[in-house]
Amino acid sequence: MTLDDIIAQHHNQVLARIQAAAKRAGRPVDAVGLIAVSKQQPVAAIRAAYRAGQRAFGESYLQEALTKQAQLTDLTDIEWHFIGRIQSNKTRQIAAHFDWVHGLADPGHARRLSEQRPVGRSPLNVCLQVNLSGETTKGGVAPEALGPLLEHCRALPGLCVRGLMTLPAPSEDEATQRRPFRQLRELRDRFATPDCPLEVLSMGMSDDLEAAILEGATLVRIGSAIFGARLG
């Protein structure tokens, strides 16, 4: 099988899992979007996923992402999502080269991203990251700090707060997997307003996407189930 065949097959399998989970949750099959996490994957793999119909891609390492973007300028409808840790000295390039940021948790980073969003571009879509496990190795704000961060970000003209994101501790048990996803949904319900509905819940990866969708995920971030191990 060619690289195109392998990735197309994997992509279809992931879409089938998403649709099955949505049906199980009683949600429309198109209620959940897919971000293909292409960090540490070669450009050829991204092109293969694109040919399979994928348009949203997630990258965690800025310089690697910029190199790929420069080689993929012919694919004009790709949507780039930054899903890595944000560093202050990299906010200008993130603001200039990405459509979405999923791990925003620092008011200073939010201000810089807003100020550095290029003139003429639509506001940068952002998901605020909440740390529900208390793990110091995970990014995100504590639940009790979400309100002030949300208020701060909503006031910034270069940002559009679209929703919330979390990265829970791994578990093989579905009930345990569902708990933090449920907590994030409940936080969204608490803070959503008519003019800021927080309609996006960015949660769920290759090993727990079903649990995330059962609790309301609208975007799942899938890497290994599409690309497998690093392909090059």
TrEMBL record:
Name under which the protein is recorded: Pyridoxal phosphate homeostasis protein
Cofactor(s) named in the record: pyridoxal 5'-phosphate
One Pfam family matching this protein: Ala_racemase_N
Similarity comment: family membership: Belongs to the pyridoxal phosphate-binding protein YggS/PROSC family.
PANTHER family hit by this protein: PROLINE SYNTHETASE CO-TRANSCRIBED BACTERIAL HOMOLOG PROTEIN (PTHR10146), PYRIDOXAL PHOSPHATE HOMEOSTASIS PROTEIN (PTHR10146:SF14)
Modified residues (N6-(pyridoxal phosphate)lysine): 39
Entry-linked SUPFAM superfamilies: PLP-binding barrel
Keywords assigned by UniProt, alphabetized: Pyridoxal phosphate
Known role: Pyridoxal 5'-phosphate (PLP)-binding protein, which is involved in PLP homeostasis.
Domain Alanine racemase N-terminal: 15-230
MF GO annotations: pyridoxal phosphate binding
CDD domains tied to this protein: PLPDE_III_Yggs_like
Native source organism of the sequence: Thermochromatium tepidum ATCC 43061
InterPro entries, alphabetized: Ala_racemase_N, PLP-binding_barrel, PyrdxlP_homeostasis
